[in-house]
Predict the structure.
Amino acid sequence: MSLLFANRALIKAAASNAFVFTINTTLGTGSNIQLPLPSGQTYNFTVDWGDGNSDVITAYNQTETLHTYSAGGIYTISISGKCGGWSFANTGDKLKITSVVQGGSIGVDYLGGAFYGCSNLSSFNASGWDVSNVANFSSFLSGCTSLTILNVSSWNVSSATDFTSFAYGCTSLTTLDVSSWVTSSVLNFSWFVSACTSLTTLDVSSWNVSSATDFSYF
């Protein structure tokens, strides 16, 4: 893989406030990546695959959501435009994503199961990610066993209602910063950090949980 292409994509993405992430195709099957776009959401974005190629995506099942690289390796991918949903949901190319460089403002509306099962995801930069329209964060990071520190305190989660299993089974996670969240609309916190066996720091002192009805196995 050309490092020049990866750096070019990263610089371009940072300037446009895109969703940027890295993959390693050798961690999964085949030299390809399938974008995990759930049905029922709106899509109108350009994806830069990090190898000099790009596509415009307007449907979750569009042929171009699957991209094959000429050589296996590490690539930086950027998405600019409207990407209404994102959900690996413990399927597909979940093993190939290794880091989230930035979330960006991509008009996301649905993040249920977003990175569920992405066990090689070791770095997650949550800054700049506009999640203000997202209601469903269930199983957002479930099974991300390589992640050690997560700071999502800057997120506007005022529309959120469901955080079921948000970080369930993140066994290497030691610090989760959610200290500034406005949680007054959240109904379900069940299994939120359950099975996070290494977690030592979690500050929820500022939360308003007046609407919450389920804290089972928190």
